[in-house]
Amino acid sequence: MAFGERLGHGVRGAAIGVAEAVPGISGGTIALVTGVYERVIASAGHVVSAIRYAASDLPRGRGGIRARQQLRQVHWEVVVPLLIGMLPGLLIAAKTLEPLLTDYPEQTRGLFLGLVLASVLVPVSMVGAPWRRKEIAALVLAAVGAFALTGLPQATLDPHPLIVLMAAAIAVCALVMPGVSGSFLLLTVGLYEPTITALNDRDFGYLAIFATGMVIGLSLFVKLLQWLLEEHRRMTLAVMSGALLGSLRALWPWQSDERTLHAPGDNILPITALFLVGIAVVTAMVVAERRRLRRAAQDLTEEAYETPQRH
Fold first, then answer.
1. pLDDT digits over 83-96, tens only?
2. Alpha carbon distance 108, 93 (integer Å)
3. Which keywords does UniProt give here (predicted)?
4. CB-based burial label for 88 (10 Å; 0-12, 13-18, 19+)
5. CA distance 181 to 245
6. Alpha-carbon dihedral angle through residues 81, 239, 181, 28, given to the nearest 10 degrees
7. pLDDT tens across 158-191, in order?
């Protein structure tokens, strides 16, 4: 893989890291928009299988053949740059976006609303045409469910290690599920600020517990999602589309601390401008990714045509 492509995956990883720190935006959404989603899900599934085979086979003296076979199927050329990019993206977001959400909540949500709204077109287009009735029904039900979820009032939980572990296991599912924000789920249960504070203060005890919960959540969820994408692709993408649409409620600029929605009020011009900027940014990302895929397909076609000519 060329250096430029690796660098591109690093930038995608940074964008996913930023998204994971922002309530209302899913890292899975960014992965979907930038064209790495299915490779990441497939790779995570193979890693989970490798760990399971190693835990089962090695103690019984069967060796690690099955585990190595799974690891060879991981898209390391994509996963490694993504992970390298995610860490600085997450740290930068934790430092810079938290004050923006506090000092300029309406403007910030307006920008994010445009980002996520434009992102909906990605899974919708991936379903293809024509949409069947059951897929439309799944989209509507998922949208209603996500709308209701993002309207829940914020709770306050004591950051007990067991609670942190369970919250991380649930929230990390949002990393692989477009339309569901892990940070928003943490915000709903009152653990967003403690987690951001722990990240900024390098509270490694808290972060270790949180990371353990993430591993547990991924190991339980990612294989299910991988199976759904393989066996029920259209329906799964329809549900993702609905989840994205319903989650837009969390990003409506004019709402109270209790998440009651209000009609447009102050700062409507700058908020509208930021909303349009968000749409333009995602649209540019989608167009650039599709052009890259077209170029890659053309290169493969030309290479396949030239190979017989050489012989």
1. 899 888 888 877 77
2. 13
3. Membrane, Transmembrane, Transmembrane helix
4. middle
5. 13
6. 0
7. 678 888 888 888 777 766 666 566 776 776 667 7
